[in-house]
């Protein structure tokens, strides 16, 4: 299996170039089967919870507890919430999003210098998974390692726009802090010691990567997806969505719900590894992205992940005779190989590990 991760199975086509070529019909490679298309089922008009983090570490016990409860119920019922008053500068969020929009708007030759390969995925890419003949998603992306520090290699980050590297560092430091706070809150609200999840993720050796998604305008948005249904394989995801283009959909009771981004909020979601560690008390929920014919969309997904070679398993405190462990131990490295090979395919993997324990 490692062998097939050396290179892409077909020549890479940049979706942005396709979009900008002015085609009226999308190539067959991007046409999803009818049941996966955006309009297949009616839309549900509810929204994911919004959690105000202002009182997360307040000294007022009641306010602190209330915030934890909201986080806990969002992680149980939805696997998703929008976080406001998260403490990160709105200005920094805006500048970071804009610098990435500018990066994607650079000439193709400039971006091609960062073209990635499936060995590490680091760099400028246009597909996830290496199955020959796979149906592709309508998006390009830039993927980079942020943590652990020894994997961080700014020379692989865009040198243009000239502020890009500094902004990645500045933004990374802030979102890393917020992820740490959220992991604490999740630990406490699961009844674990506040450092439980952070330590189980490898403490200082914790991993983090940034995936900047670019969803170009699409002439036939009803036939395709910007990103196919998947759950995030890692620990916790902090998503900075586009400020004025919606697109993210979350699965709830078998229906797709389009998230309406609250201005300046982060979208937080539980990844598969927290589902495993919480023994399925917290849910890693399927989500996908739809595209549109009017506007490009940019989003930044910061993935906070366990150290790659640690065994991840349900917390002993959350396992009992009535609630036996639902998953057997697996390293994140092994786990991640699945999505890197087969691409985004719903929640098949975490469910597979459930049925095979
Ligand atoms: C992801 C993801 C959602 C979005 O990158 O894993 O789910 O809105 N992105 O771009
Ligand atoms: Ni995702």
UniProtKB/TrEMBL annotation:
- GO terms of biological process kind: defense response; negative regulation of defense response to insect; regulation of defense response to fungus; regulation of jasmonic acid mediated signaling pathway
Q: Which GO terms describe its molecular function?
A: dioxygenase activity; jasmonic acid hydrolase; metal ion binding
Native organism is Gossypium barbadense (Sea Island cotton)
Query: What cofactor does this one take?
Result: Fe(2+); L-ascorbate
The record lists the catalysed reaction(s) as: jasmonate + 2-oxoglutarate + O2 = (1R,2R)-12-hydroxyjasmonate + succinate + CO2
The name on file for this protein is Fe2OG dioxygenase domain-containing protein
Keywords of the record, alphabetical order, are: Dioxygenase, Iron, Jasmonic acid signaling pathway, Metal-binding, Oxidoreductase, Plant defense
Task: Give the taxonomic lineage as stored in the record.
Answer: Eukaryota, Viridiplantae, Streptophyta, Embryophyta, Tracheophyta
Record-linked SUPFAM superfamilies: Clavaminate synthase-like (SSF51197)
Q: Please report a single Pfam family linked to this protein.
A: 2OG-FeII_Oxy
Q: Does the keyword Iron apply?
A: yes
The record's comment on protein family reads: Belongs to the iron/ascorbate-dependent oxidoreductase family.
Q: Does the keyword Lipid metabolism apply?
A: no
Residue ranges occupied by any Fe2OG dioxygenase domain in the UniProt entry: 205-306
